Structure formats: C-alpha cells, structure tokens
Amino acid sequence: MMFLTSIRGRRWLALLASAAGVALTVWLSGSNVGAQGYHLGLADEPACQSLTPASAGGPMPNNQNLMVLRFLGVANYELTYRGQVILLDAGIELLPWWAQTGLTRDQITKVDGIFIGHAHGEHLWDAPYIAERTGATVMGDPISAKFLREAGLPEQQVAEVKGLGEEGDTATFDGFTVRAVHGYHNVIDTTYIRAIRTAANAVTLTPGLTEAEEAFRQELGERGPQLDPDTRQQVVTDGTMRYYVSLDNGFRLIYGDSAGPVTDAERELTETVPAMDVALIPYYGLEMAIPLTMNFVRLFKPSVILPTHFDGHRARTLDMPVAPLALAVHEELPQTTVLTPLLKAPICIDTVTKEVFVG
Questions:
Q1: How far is it, in rounded angstroms, from Cα 316 to Cα 289?
Q2: Across-strand partners of 139?
Q3: Where do the DSSP E strands lie in the chain?
Q4: Which of 66, 97, 131, 242 suits a disulfide with 183, CB 3.0-4.6 Å?
C-alpha cells in the first residue's frame, strides 16, 4: 500500500501513513519535481524495504543521491548515504523501560562515524564498543570524549569538540560533512519530573522490572559515564552538541537530542543556513514539549521534522503524541511535514528531487 500526495496536501497523510506503518511518498518544500513528476523509484530500493539497519548488515542504498534514516529508539538514529553509515547517538541497547528494537551492539558491524549529542548513558554507552569493533571515529563534547578515552578508545578515534566554529568541529565523508554546533541541554524542575513519573505510574499496564531486566539495567548503567553533580551541570551548559549534516549537493539536515534554550552558535548557523531540509529535533516533557520544540522549528524552518527522545519510559514518563506537535507546526509552517518514525523503519529521501518515501 502506498500514498502519493502533493506538497500542499501531504501533512496529515504523512502522519497517518507513518503511524500505520504503510509506505508513503511526499515531497519536501523546494522540490524540483512537479505534480506530474511522481515516481516510485524509491519503492524499488532494497534499503527502503528492509527493517535491518545498514550498520547491522542491512542493504545499502543503490541510488547515490539517496539518504536513509532509521530511528533506533530514544534519540538514536542511523544515517546512510553513498555507502557510508553514521550513528547519531549510540545507546543501541536500551533500558528495559523503553520499547526494545531487538538490536544489540554485537550486531553492529559497519559504522563510519559516531556523533554524540551529550554524555548521558542512553546516548553513548555503546559508542566505545562499536567504535572499537568498526574503527569509527566518535565525535563528542569534552565530557563524552573523556568517557571514551577512559573506556580505552584510542586517541585517534576520539574527536573532541566544543561546537563553537573552531578547527576540528567538522568531520568529512564522501559527499557530505558533519559539523558540531554548541547546544544546551534541557533543564526540567524536579517537582515537575516527580509529577510526570506519578502520572506515568498511574497509567502503566506493565509491572515493575523483572530480576533479569533489573540486572540488565544495572549493566547498562555501568557502561555509561559516572557523572558527579558538577559534571552533570557541565553537560547542561557546555556538553551538549547539535550536528549539522551538509551534503555536497546542497541538502541540509540538523540533529539534536536535547531541547534546551537556543544558543548563540545555533543562531549563527542559521545566519548562513536559513532553512533545513530535515530536522531531527527533541520533543519531550509533556506540556513543556511543544514550546521547547517549536523554538527549534522556528529557528531551523525545516521541510520535514522527525522527533528525538519522544518515546516515554515505562512507569517514568509517557510517550509524546506527535499529532499535537504537527498541529502547532502547521500553524506557523504549513508546508512542513511532521513524521512519526517507527523503530528501524526506513525513511528514504532523494536528496536531489526531495522525494521522501517511508517504507
């Protein structure tokens, strides 16, 4: 089953199709393919018909202009382009209170670069292991870099960045670059956090962790950084990165895994890059979510939005429904599409024609 829709009429179909797990084709704003130019080429791509990530042996795109994005839970995304695979965050094995992907770090065999948003465990605890197995370089803030070195990753595989436009903030691949941009981590009042967890506990249908789940939770916790209070504050102010992915053909993507206030570095980026084709931006915190996320929507003016960190913790927070965000976005940017990614499902984008196919 497949939906084809014009730019003007595509937004609700995008939401419905992606939520139902059916194939969908839309066009990004600025597409050079008109109403008579629809084609189904992406539907024939093996990479657009597989639930196996390329990093775990799944098919690579045949089309050299094709980018494939896959949501791997929490804020983890895989990006594939021109035979290369990068991971945006690397907390592949998830805590028991998140929906499980079935993907383990041992299954990851091909990665060319890993980019860490900030030094909380679920964003990087598998990065040293995957980097050692694949030879990938890991880019991250100074706190993340310290963790990587202490985990035994060789210095040549650690790219420490501050995201302030300094030398070394950019990684170069075949056909694209990735630039670190200083961000700010979200700060949520502890009273509000307690209220969220009380609400989640009140509606959860799942009992507490089993002994095996609790043992796995402890194992994952031990894999991640052990942060003292001062370092935790540094994560908020100095240790959070966005990543700007710029293709040689002009296609632009921004990624962020935490929704703090907009920084000077982010504003400076938009002075030279006024709009993004795709934004992978955080969306969490219940009633705080839409105002926080809309700050990034207004800043980056993306054609397509994919949320990060929108999936809730079992008995700790609730999943964020994406439809209310889509309504808020439509009020300000009616030509922007908001998609709800399914775990491991391919989101295929022809970076030249701007066709988007959700497999």
A1: 16
A2: 115, 159
A3: 2-4, 23-27, 66-71, 77-81, 84-88, 113-115, 137-140, 158-160, 170-173, 176-182, 241-247, 252-255, 278-282, 304-308, 337-338, 346-350, 355-358
A4: 242
Measured CA to CA, the distance from residue 141 to residue 320 in angstroms comes to 28
Pick left, alpha or beta for residue 143 (phi over 0 → left; psi -120 to 50 → alpha; otherwise beta).
Answer: alpha
Q: Rounded to an integer, what distance in angstroms lies between the CA atom of residue 97 and that of residue 111?
A: 27
Cα-based torsion angle of the residue sequence 345, 350, 353, 357 in order, rounded to the nearest 10 degrees: -10
Domains assigned to the chain: 2-358 (3.60.15.10)
Q: Which two tokens stand for residue 141?
A: 């803030």
In this prediction, residue 205 carries a pLDDT of: 67
Closest C-alpha among 219, 73, 184, 90 to residue 144 = 90
Determine the residue type at 126: D
What is the pTM (predicted TM-score) of this model? 0.90
What is the separation of C-alpha 206 from the centre of its chain, rounded to a whole number of angstroms? 27
The CA–CA distances, whole Å, from 113 to 233, 328, 356 equal: 27, 34, 24
pLDDT of residue 31: 45
> What's the rounded Cα separation, in Å, for the pair 111 and 294?
32
For the chain, residues with pLDDT lower than 70 are 1-40, 204-207, 285-287, 313-316
Residue of 275, 234, 236 lying closest to 253 (CA atoms): 275
Q: What is the pLDDT of residue 319?
A: 75
Query: What does each C-alpha distance from 177 to 96, 246, 343, 352 come to in angstroms?
Result: 34, 5, 26, 17
The pairing of strands 304-308 and 278-282 is parallel
Residue 301 zone, left/alpha/beta (φ > 0; ψ -120 to 50; rest): left
Report the distance separating Cα 288 and Cα 318, nearest Å: 13
Give the model's pLDDT for residue 77.
Answer: 98
pLDDT the model gives residue 228: 95
Specify the pLDDT at position 264.
97
Specify the long-range contacts of residues 213-216, CB closer than 8 Å, at least 24 apart: 213/96, 214/96, 216/95, 216/96
According to DSSP, the residues that pair with 242 across neighbouring strands are: 181
Q: Note the pLDDT of residue 120.
A: 95
